[in-house]
Design brief:
alpha/beta, Rossmann fold, Aminopeptidase, 10-stranded mixed β-sheet
């Protein structure tokens, strides 16, 4: 596990930007395992602290002095900074700024704005900084995963315990979205320490530095991950064919749904990466379906039935205050070509809207053209494109 130093400074600035950055820093301090929070009291004391502890990462707000940032980088630490400051961006490995609308390099926008921040700061001023209506601001923040994403970024990497146990190998995951040479050097130490067999990395396709570092460091491209989204302001009109219904799956549906889901892995990165045993990959996806229906991985699954016989499914995971995501989607091959997958998705959207969900995402593979076209027919639009990389050590 990565040991993290949260470094605070006695800043007096009451500007709303600095309030947001310090609030975010305090959130990380309270929610990141193995983090130690220290108030800065001079470089001599800081160097003494670094000599007594094995920190890999330092997280600070943008009020960190430039000379302190340089000292930390000179010590080989990964530097994560909340708030964009011109003289810091060339020093920091990762910049998180929820008050910047767009950037191809930094982690910015409402995706990284904690929902609880809106309870303590002026929403209209935040909306003005992001050049968006305040209602849109609240809607986007209600639908984000910042409470998890911010902690994941500051953690940098971790071992995937469930995946490791299932596949019988040690699987690591780079969770910080960015990859620099400095971060990669710490990942190498983590790999040796934890005897990692496989590292997985999900990379922002627009971040040129991360892509280049991945390629130089021996990571292999295995998949394009496309995320689509749809906002549910109005009821979703859908016409079910006679004899067909859409409902939540029950435990007694599991055997049939596992049969239907036997081949859904064929577009996945696990199929493309031939280091994985195909039989284990099928078992992985069938287990996912089972866990979704039991509420142990995803929260539940909707299924489309022909005379109450399941012929298709989509698993659902709720996140944020009013958002959900479709994860696994499958349809019995005997019922393909009739538009049933689209009907199932549209009816599921309407059922989610009735449960108070206003925003839905779905993830699919860059190779799965049929799924992409189907989601577009259902009113989804592209939200982001990411690249999956694998690096093996056996």
């Amino acid at each position: 596990m990565n040991d993290v130093l949260i470094l605070t400074f006695d800043g007096k600035d009451a500007a709303i930007k600095d309030m947001v950055y310090r609030y975010s820093l305090a959130y990380v301090s309270g929610n990141l395992e193995r983090a130690k929070t220290v108030a800065f009291n001079g470089h001599e004391e800081l160097l003494s602290l670094l000599g007594r502890h094995t920190f890999s990462t330092v997280v600070a707000a943008r009020d960190i002095p430039c000379e302190t940032a340089l000292l930390l980088k000179g010590a080989g630490l990964v530097l994560v900074v909340f708030g964009c400051r011109e003289d810091l961006v060339s020093i920091a490995d990762i910049v998180i700024d929820p008050l910047i609308a767009k950037s191809e390099k930094y982690l910015v926008g409402t995706r990284f704005l904690l929902p609880s921040v809106l309870d303590v700061v002026d929403n209209f001023e935040i909306a003005s900084l992001l050049d968006m209506p305040v209602d849109d601001l609240r809607e986007e923040v209600d639908c984000n995963q910042a409470v998890d994403d911010i902690v994941e970024v500051c953690q940098l990497y971790h071992k995937l315990t469930w995946d490791s146990d299932f596949f019988g190998i040690n699987v690591g995951f780079i969770s910080c979205f960015r990859l620099t040479s400095n971060i990669e050097s710490h990942i190498s130490k983590f790999i040796r320490r934890e005897k990692i067999d496989l590292v997985e990395y999900l990379c922002n396709c627009h971040d040129r530095e991360s892509v280049l570092v991945s390629e130089r460091s021996g990571y292999s491209f295995v998949d394009i991950r496309l995320t689509f989204e749809r906002h549910l302001q109005r009821p979703v009109a859908v016409d079910l064919l006679p004899g067909f219904t859409v409902r939540k799956a029950r435990p007694d549906d599991v055997p049939e749904l596992k049969r239907i889901g036997t081949d859904i892995y064929k577009y996945s990165r696990y199929y493309f990466d031939t280091n994985f045993d195909r039989a284990k990959v099928v078992e992985f996806y069938q287990g996912w379906i089972t866990k979704a229906i039991e509420g142990r991985f995803d929260d539940f699954a909707y299924i489309i039935c022909d005379s109450d016989q399941p012929v298709g499914f989509c698993t659902v995971k709720k996140f944020g205050r009013r958002s959900a995501q479709f994860n696994l989607v499958g349809l019995d091959e005997a019922h393909a070509g009739r538009g049933l997958a689209q009907v199932m998705i549209e009816k599921s959207l309407d059922l989610l809207r009735k449960e108070g969900i206003s925003h839905v995402e779905v993830v699919t593979q860059g190779r799965n053209y049929g799924a992409q076209r189907m989601y577009q027919r259902c009113g989804f639009v592209t939200k982001k494109t990411e690249l999956w990389y694998h690096k093996w050590f056996r």
